[in-house]
Amino acid sequence: EVQLVESGGVVVHPGGSLRLSCAVSGFNFDAYTMHWVRQAPGKGLEWVSLISWDAVRTNYALSVRGRFTISRDNSKNSLYLHMNSLRTEDTALYFCAKAPTSYSGSWVPMDVWGQGTTVTVSS
Amino acid sequence: QTVVTQEASFSVSPGGTVTLTCALASGSVSAGYYPSWYQQTPGQAPRTLIYSTNTRSSGVPDRFSGSILGNKAALTITGAQADDESDYYCVLYMPSGFWVFGGGTRLTVL
Q1: Which residues in B lie closer than 8 A to residue A95 (C-beta atoms)?
Q2: What is the DSSP letter of B90?
């Protein structure tokens, strides 16, 4: 069974830093593009970032570019989101998601999702 | 700022058919935008219905179908059921290599 489990969400002050993790199992992690998507309280979904299966390609939403960094450790079946210079508007439930097809580029969307981890940025 | 638009709300009768759409504020949606559709009920993670225009995700019943209608991506639900009452989101892949979600459609079955 494919599983994605996010962790690392906490309450942090504006300007602070945080690293989210996504531990996966049940599929060949090193063959799939991965995404981070977030959802602010009571709002819609917002795509945040992606990383290709080989970590060669990454991309970011304009709202987080230059502040967030996506990475992966294929040896640990883990995806990460390093978040710096956090703002109150980064408060959200953060989901990781895998692409539906293996060895594909950044044009593959989200398919299987985790349950999310909550980040709260507040003074 | 790329804007993807969806109907804010829609209603359908049980057993009925409904088509939700996903449009670009400027320009036409084509298969090259790899439109995908997600269903989300309150407090739950999104569930993937359709990706790359018309490919059903694993386990999704064929009551759900995706297409391009005119200049928009579309999600059609046939034989609507009570548990189809959810928020539905589309997402498009932009030429610059990033993804943009629509604002979502709240579907009511009544």
Answers
A1: 45-46
A2: E
Residues of A in contact with B47 (CB under 8 A): 113
How many other CB atoms are found less than 10 A from the CB of residue B22? 28
Could you read off the pLDDT of A78-122 as tens digits, one per residue? 999 999 999 999 999 999 999 999 888 888 999 999 999 999 999
A54: closest CA of chain B, how far (Å): 16
- Is residue A109 less than 8 Å (CB to CB) from chain B? yes
Contacts of B54 (CB under 8 A, 6+ apart): B65, B66, B67
User: Rounded to whole angstroms, how far apart are CA atoms B13 and A91?
Assistant: 36
Report DSSP letters for A35-54, one per residue.
Answer: EEEEE-TTS-EEEEEEE-TT
Q: Look up residue A100 and give its two tokens.
A: 């539906």
Contact by Cβ (8 Å): A100, A109: yes
pLDDT digits (tens, 9 = 90+) for B49-60: 999 999 999 999
